[in-house]
Structures are given as structure tokens and as C-alpha cells.
Design goal:
The complex is a heterodimer of chains A (374) and B (449).
Chain A (H helix, E strand, L loop, with lengths): L6 H16 L4 H10 L1 H6 L11 H6 L2 H5 L2 E6 L12 H14 L8 E3 L9 H11 L6 E3 L3 H4 L5 H7 L4 E5 L2 E5 L16 H9 L13 H11 L8 E5 L17 H8 L5 E5 L7 E4 L2 E5 L34 E7 L5 E7 L5 E3 L1 H5 L16
Parallel strand pairs in A: 1-2, 2-3, 5-6, 6-7, 7-9
Antiparallel strand pairs in A: 1-10, 4-5, 8-9, 10-11, 11-12
Helix pairs in contact in A: 7-9
Chain B lengths: L11 E4 L6 E4 L23 H11 L14 H6 L9 H11 L12 H4 L46 H10 L9 H9 L2 H11 L5 H13 L7 H6 L8 H11 L22 E2 L10 H14 L3 H10 L8 H4 L8 E2 L21 H9 L19 H12 L7 H17 L6 H4 L19
Antiparallel strand pairs in B: 1-2, 3-4
Helix pairs in contact in B: 3-7, 3-8, 5-8, 10-15, 14-15
The chains are: A alpha/beta (374), B mainly alpha (449).
């Protein structure tokens, strides 16, 4: 007996033999047996012996990381409700905060990707702000549409300041945009603040307008970047993806082309966005796009418009509300490109490395899940 | 835990009134509280091997080992039996002999049946098991009943088959403590009965692989699925009490049990064969520091034996499935135990920390213990006392008829214990009057204050 095989490998071998044996069964028997073995199929989704260190330890062992690159952590899309409606999402963001606080060494900062609240209520935002205060590393916050459209960002600005800003960190220029600006669809219809909020919070709701960055912010962005050289490393944060993926769910920024045009003169730009609650990778010309995971729930993939570079995560397990959710970290290299780590709570973490997007998916391909997506 | 060793002798056989279990009345009563009384004892609190064998013979009549047990689908049954270990009468007989043979332990005091005792629901009914030299392990002994249909073995699923599983405790230093396979084989090789039995069963001399195979073959015959609930599910509406029926509805609804404990014709055990953190070990462990130590320990010794020793004998045991996969998603996650005969296998959970099924219900009613790795399906259930009693009544209706006597006795003992104290009950949390996160966030001057 080969004693060097780990228990997991042996288990999988055993299961493989088990499933091979099934081929000899007639169809009816197979159906019955496969019901009994459903759990084994799920278990085989774990790659054999691909044990991983907690993110923190793996990081400390990477000499490249210590030399010049740095990393920050992210938490996004927590969608907190008031206590009487839901506390599951509160526990989820607390888990993310624990994850990040246990990173050793601590990340340079923590980025919050928007949609802290579900319906823009003061209590929701206050609860979220209180929770994020537990983070040990410095915090940067971006706004999402769920934070904004009850009081048009009044409470959010009181808690977190301006929604549009930039800063430099270790040679990288970081920019945060409010990409969820909607045309006024409410005044003419006489909608109450809550009706406006609920309209924006819904998918497949044709009443609301598509998201955009808008002219004032585009002007600001152009000015903000004006002094930078073409090879300056830039990371832009936006809540919605800064491209057009799927209009009905507002996985979409209406003036994406105009924003991309402002970024065009740079050698390479990274855009990191929330809103889509899933592994999402795209590249348009010089711009490399990465999505963030939600702590609250995973969205299915859009029925059309999926970027080719995206390796879709498989369908979340409906029996595990944590599956498909998570948080993550971003390793920023001196050239401005990033390794994007999706720390899925119920699965092995997935890293989409800079090598993958910079070679247009030819190298550094992340492991494909062996279960179907949707 | 105090146990008095009771000598054999002065036995009088008497059939227990309602049950089919035979109870043996002794001159000196009482072992550990809650354990079957009046049974001749061997070492470590187990019933004597002779007594267990007698009882086993009574409750498991001779059957054709090659056929699927009554009531189980032959196709499913066949799929769970390895090709190199088809069930034969000779293999089962050899396995039975090995299962009850304490010579397989280093000091001759522990057999499989010490901790998987016929009189105690094929467990030891203790929080954690006692091995050679009175050493206590870290985990509760699961029952060996109905294990043939499990997809992985041990609380952390580190073993893929019964054959593989059976070989581990013999070599574990806090269980049966044999230094190596050769020593275990040597302990029985001189016995001409074994020489002949191995030859008949496997056509070979005594060897360690076949020890595992034979024990597995015997364990596959321990199919105990003939419960009142089974008759109820088959259409006999009167087979279980109205209380238990209400419990079955709760099981599938408000109490959310079925999410992880599916019970249906193709999977009658009541386990999803998966691993969940329900917060049991969060009561007394900081997972992060444990996980770091575990990774160092597993890197130093990645062998299967090393894992077995850490899982059973060290405080890293509390990491559960993480020790096998080293995946953060599995921190503090343990195998969903099967539910059949759960009434006769107290105490509960991987560490035996919950003495009664009422305590188990209290644990789930408050949504488990908060920890960062808590399974996403855990949430407060808002079950009333009456509803808790109904689910417990349903759980006791899962006892095989042959264990009815012990099941009835357990119901009485557990009800009495639960009547005295319910240390895991937290009604405020169960009813969401207090939310688990509020202790952490709000009490520090957050919103709502």
C-alpha cells in the first residue's frame, strides 16, 4: 500500500473506483445509487491534496511579496438589513472582518467595495460602519447603489466622506469612483425615497436607468490623472463593472467607453469592481478587470455578454448559504498589475494572477472547477 | 466519571420487560450513570465480550451474508461492497472474532467492542473513549451500526472505507496501542483458530490487511434499520406516536434538520455524508491559532498515522475536517453523523459534550455557537419546549426494534437528566430576542444603544 498518499487522495481514489463500478449497473439502479452517492460527487470537487496554507502563511513565504509588491484585503457587498429582518448577512460580514483581522502580516489597507446596506437605511449603514471599525488595518470605502438611493447618499457621506477620491500608496495611484449614478427617474413619477430605493435595489427593473459615472466625475478623473506618466501604475475601483456586461441587472456602466477612453493612454490599468458577487475576469485593451466576492450571496452569471477570460465558478450549493460567498485580497505588483485572490468560504481559494490577464488567458490559468456553472 | 469494575459471576439472565434486549442482573448494580446497568463488565467499562457475543447472537440471526439485508436496495448494497471483500460467512465470522478480541491491543485490555459495545448502542456511551492504560482520546466513539452505507469514516472523514478505518485504532497509541502492524499480527498469529479462519476467509496466512477486511465484513452485517419510523414511512400511520409525527414535520420544516440529515429510501441513514461546522468546538477553542499549529504539525509529519494520532490524541482534534483537507472552509467541521438509533448512542457530538438529545436540540435551537467558520445553514430556530420534545420523540422513533429496551431506558434517563438541567439552552437567542452578533458589535456602543 502506498503510504505516502494523503487521506484525501485515497478517499478520491476510492470514490473513483466506486463510480467506475456504477457503470456496470443498469440505468434504474444507477439512478438510485447515484442519489445515495450525491455527497461523494460533491466531495470530489476538492482537488486532491491541493491543501493550502492559510492565505497569510502562504503570503509570508513568497519572497517576491516582501521585496516590492504589497497587498490589500477586500470585503464587499454585505447588504445589511435591520435586525428584525435579517442577521445572517451580519454574521457573514463579521466573518470577513475576522478573516482580514487574522491576516498575518496585516494587509496595507482594507477596501470595502460598496453595498454595505441593503436599503440605504441609516441603521443599516451605522451597523456596517460599526462592524468595519473592528478592522485593524486602515479602511477605504466605496459606495454602492444600495447605500445611496434612499437619501441620495446623505447618511453614507456623513459616515464615510466623499464617494469619489484618489490616493497614492507605495508608488501606485488608486482611484475610487461612484459608478452607480442614475438619471432621475423618480421625481416625475413622484416616488417616495423608499420606492426609489426599492426600484434601484431590484434586478430586471426597467424603471431605473442604467448606472453611469457621469460627466462631472469623468472630468474629475481626467484631471486627477493628468499629471501621471503613461507608465504610471493605476488601480481604479468602481462598484459596477466599468464595462457593459448585462443591462437588465445593471452589470453595466453606461458611459464605460468614455471612462475607458480616459484610461486609454496608460500602459496598463486595473479596475476592481463589486456588484456582481462572483468570480469575474475581463480585459479590454490596456484595462484588466476583476470582480469582488460578496459576503451576502452569490449572483448567477449573466445569461449573455460573459467575458471570455472569466473562469466561472461552479453553481453554489443551495444547501450552504456561505457557498459562493467570501472576501479576498489583492497583491499589487510594482507594474500596477495585480494577483486577485478570491477567498471563497466554502471552497478552495482561487487566484487570478497578473500573468493570466497579461497573456490574455494563455498562461497562469486558474484551476477550472469540475462542476458545471449554470 | 466514576465506574466500578464489576466482576462476572452470579449472572442471572432475565429478559427485559418490554424490550428485546436481554439484561443481565448482577448482585452488584450500577456502573457509570446513564449506562446500561447490571451487565457483567470487562475492562474500561465495556460489557464483557462473552456477554456481548451472547447478546449479539440473539439480536442478529443467521442470514445469507451474500445477500443484501432485508429492506435495503440490492443495487445500493452491492455498490458499497468492495470487489476484493465480497461478503461471505467465513469473512463475517472471522471479523466477528477479531471485533471482540482484546489481544489486538497492546496490553490485551481493549477490543473494537470495548468502545463499540453491543450493550451500549455499539458505542461506549461516554463523552470520549478510553484506550489502553486508561488514556482518554479526544473524540466520541460513533456507533458501528449501519456504517456499511457511509461514504467516509471517522468524524473528519479521513478514512474512505471500512477496511481502511478498522486498521487505524489498533495502531493508535491512545486506543489499542499496538506499535505496528507486525505486532498486531503477531498477537494473534499463534492462534490455530485464526490461522484456519484467515485461510478459510481469504486463502492466506494471518495478515494485517485481512484483519481490516474481515472486521469491515463483520461490521457490514450490523444493519439495524427496522425502526418504528421505517414502518411509519412505509405507510403504517400508527407506528409512531402523534408526538413523534409532529417531530417528523418539524424535522423537515421549522427545525431544519433535514438540510444535513436527509432521510429517504435511497439514503436511509440521515446523513448528507458531508462536513459542517455547527460550533461545538467553538465553545472551547480559538480556531486560528489551532489551525496554524496544525499546519506546522502536518508538515512535519504528513503520514496517515500522524494525522490519526493528531486527530484522536491532540487538541488539534477540534479542527475536524480541516486536518484532512487543510482547507479553511473545513475548520471545525465534522461529519454529519447518521441518525438511525441516535437514541441509544449518547452523549452527542464529536466530543461527546452534549449528554442528551434535549441538549442537542438546545444547541441547534440557538443556531449553534457563533464562530467565524459556522456553517451558513445554522440559525436560531425558535422551537418551543413542546416542539423540542416532539423532535426528540421522533429521534427515539429511529431506534431499531432490537434495541427498543435500551432505547426506552435511554429515553427515561435522558428525560430525567434534561429535567434537572439544560446547560446549553438559551431561549433569548433561540427566539432572536438576542442576536448572536449583538454581543460583539452593539455592546461596544454600536447603533441601537
Amino acid at each position: 500500500m502506498a503510504t505516502q498518499k494523503c487521506a484525501e487522495t485515497k478517499y478520491l481514489q476510492g470514490r473513483r473506483e466506486f463510480f467506475r463500478g456504477l457503470k456496470n449497473l443498469d440505468r434504474r439502479s444507477f439512478l438510485r445509487v447515484s442519489a445515495a452517492a450525491a455527497g461523494a460527487a460533491v466531495a470530489s470537487g476538492v482537488a486532491p491534496c491541493r491543501s493550502f496554507l492559510p492565505v497569510t502563511l502562504a503570503q509570508a513565504a513568497d519572497p517576491d511579496a516582501r521585496k516590492q509588491s504589497f497587498r490589500f484585503a477586500y470585503i464587499s457587498d454585505s447588504h445589511l438589513y435591520e435586525r428584525s429582518l435579517n442577521d445572517r448577512f451580519v454574521n457573514a460580514i463579521l466573518r470577513a472582518v475576522d478573516d482580514v483581522n487574522h491576516m498575518d502580516p496585516q494587509p496595507d489597507f482594507v477596501f470595502y467595495g460598496g453595498d454595505l446596506a441593503q436599503l440605504g437605511q441609516a441603521k443599516e449603514l451605522e451597523l456596517g460602519a460599526q462592524i468595519l471599525k473592528e478592522l485593524k488595518a486602515p479602511l477605504k470605502v466605496m459606495v454602492g447603489e444600495h447605500d445611496w438611493y434612499f437619501d441620495m447618499g446623505e447618511k453614507w457621506r456623513e459616515l464615510f466622506g466623499k464617494p469619489t477620491y484618489s490616493w497614492d500608496h507605495k508608488g501606485i495611484h488608486f482611484v475610487v469612483l461612484n459608478s452607480v449614478v442614475e438619471r432621475d427617474f423618480w421625481t416625475a413619477r413622484g416616488l417616495t425615497p423608499m420606492e426609489r430605493m426599492l426600484t434601484v435595489a431590484g434586478l430586471d427593473n426597467g424603471l431605473q436607468s442604467p448606472f453611469s459615472v457621469g460627466e462631472p466625475q469623468r472630468t474629475w478623473l481626467a484631471a486627477d490623472l493628468a499629471a501621471l506618466a503613461e507608465d504610471a501604475p493605476i488601480v481604479v475601483f468602481s462598484h459596477s463593472p466599468l464595462y457593459k456586461l448585462y443591462r437588465a441587472w445593471n452589470f453595466w456602466t453606461d458611459d464605460a467607453e468614455q471612462v475607458q477612453a480616459i484610461l486609454k493612454r496608460f500602459k496598463q490599468v486595473v479596475v476592481i469592481h463589486g456588484h456582481t458577487h462572483q468570480l469575474l475576469t475581463n480585459r479590454i485593451g490596456n484595462i484588466h478587470f476583476h470582480g469582488m466576492l460578496s459576503t451576502a450571496w452569490p449572483w448567477p452569471y449573466a445569461p449573455e455578454g460573459m467575458p471570455e477570460l472569466t473562469i466561472q465558478m461552479s453553481r453554489p450549493d443551495p444547501f450552504n448559504p456561505n457557498d459562493g460567498c467570501g472576501n479576498g485580497e489583492v497583491r499589487v505588483h510594482p507594474d500596477g498589475l495585480v494577483d486577485k485572490v478570491y477567498n471563497l468560504w466554502n471552497r478552495n481559494p482561487v487566484t487570478v494572477g497578473r500573468n493570466y490577464t497579461s497573456t490574455w488567458g494563455k498562461q497562469g490559468i486558474p484551476p477550472r472547477p469540475n462542476r458545471p456553472s449554470y | 466519571m466514576s465506574r466500578s469494575m464489576v466482576s462476572r459471576g452470579g449472572l442471572r439472565l432475565a429478559l427485559a420487560g418490554a424490550g428485546l434486549l436481554a439484561a443481565v442482573v448482577l448482585s452488584r448494580p450500577s456502573v457509570a450513570a446513564g449506562q446500561p446497568p447490571d451487565v457483567p463488565r470487562a475492562k474500561h467499562g465495556a460489557a464483557s465480550m462473552e456477554h456481548q457475543l451472547q447478546l449479539l447472537a440473539k439480536i442478529t440471526p443467521e442470514v445469507d451474508a451474500a445477500k443484501a439485508p432485508a429492506g435495503l436496495d440490492p443495487a445500493i448494497w452491492a455498490a458499497f461492497i468492495p470487489k476484493d471483500n465480497a461478503l461471505t460467512a467465513d469473512r463475517v465470522a472471522l471479523g466477528r472474532k477479531l471485533y471482540f478480541d482484546a489481544r489486538l491491543s497492546e496490553d490485551g485490555s481493549v477490543s473494537c467492542a470495548t468502545c463499540h459495545d453491543v450493550t451500549r448502542g455499539f458505542t461506549d456511551q461516554r463523552p470520549v473513549s478510553e484506550g489502553i492504560a486508561e488514556q482518554l482520546g479526544k473524540r466520541n466513539a460513533p456507533t458501528t451500526l449501519n456504517v456499511a452505507l457511509l461514504q467516509t469514516l471517522f468524524w473528519d472523514g479521513r478514512s474512505p472505507t471500512l477496511e481502511h478505518q478498522a486498521k487505524a485504532p489498533i495502531l493508535n497509541p491512545v486506543e489499542m496501542g499496538m506499535p505496528d502492524e507486525a505486532a498486531a499480527v503477531k498477537a494473534i498469529r499463534g492462534d490455530p483458530e485464526y490461522q484456519e479462519a484467515f485461510r478459510r476467509a481469504y486463502g492466506r496466512d494471518v495478515n494485517y490487511e485481512d484483519v481490516g477486511r474481515a472486521i469491515a465484513a463483520f461490521e457490514r452485517t450490523l444493519v439495524f434499520v427496522d425502526s418504528p419510523f421505517r414502518r411509519f414511512a412505509a405507510g403504517d400511520a400508527k407506528a409512531i406516536s402523534p408526538e413523534a409525527k409532529a417531530g417528523w414535520d418539524l424535522f423537515n420544516g421549522k427545525a431544519r434538520c433535514v438540510t444535513c440529515h436527509p432521510m429517504n429510501p435511497s439514503n436511509p441513514l440521515g446523513t448528507d455524508n458531508r462536513f459542517h461546522n455547527v460550533g461545538v468546538s467553538a465553545r472551547h477553542r480559538d480556531f486560528e491559532s489551532l489551525a496554524r499549529r496544525a499546519i506546522q504539525a502536518l508538515e512535519k509529519d504528513p503520514s496517515e498515522k500522524g494525522l490519526d494520532e493528531l486527530a484522536v490524541g491532540s487538541d488539534l482534534s477540534e479542527l475536524g475536517r480541516f486536518m484532512v483537507t487543510r482547507n479553511r472552509a473545513d475548520v471545525g467541521a465534522f461529519r454529519t453523523p447518521l441518525l438511525l438509533n441516535v437514541g441509544v448512542t449518547p452523549p452527542y457530538m464529536h466530543d461527546g459534550s452534549l449528554p442528551t438529545l434535549w441538549d442537542v436540540m438546545d444547541h441547534y435551537n440557538k443556531g449553534g455557537e457563533a464562530n467565524p467558520f459556522l456553517d451558513g445553514g445554522m440559525e436560531p430556530l425558535a422551537l418551543s419546549e413542546e416542539e423540542i420534545g416532539q423532535v426528540v420523540a421522533f429521534l427515539f422513533a429511529l431506534s431499531d426494534d432490537r434495541l427498543a429496551g435500551e432505547s426506552q431506558r435511554q429515553l427515561t434517563v435522558q428525560r430525567a437528566a434534561a429535567g434537572k438541567q439544560r446547560p446549553f439552552r438559551d431561549e433569548q437567542v433561540a427566539l432572536r430576542r438576542k442576536l448572536l452578533f449583538e454581543g460583539r458589535v452593539m455592546d461596544r456602543g454600536g447603533p441601537g444603544k
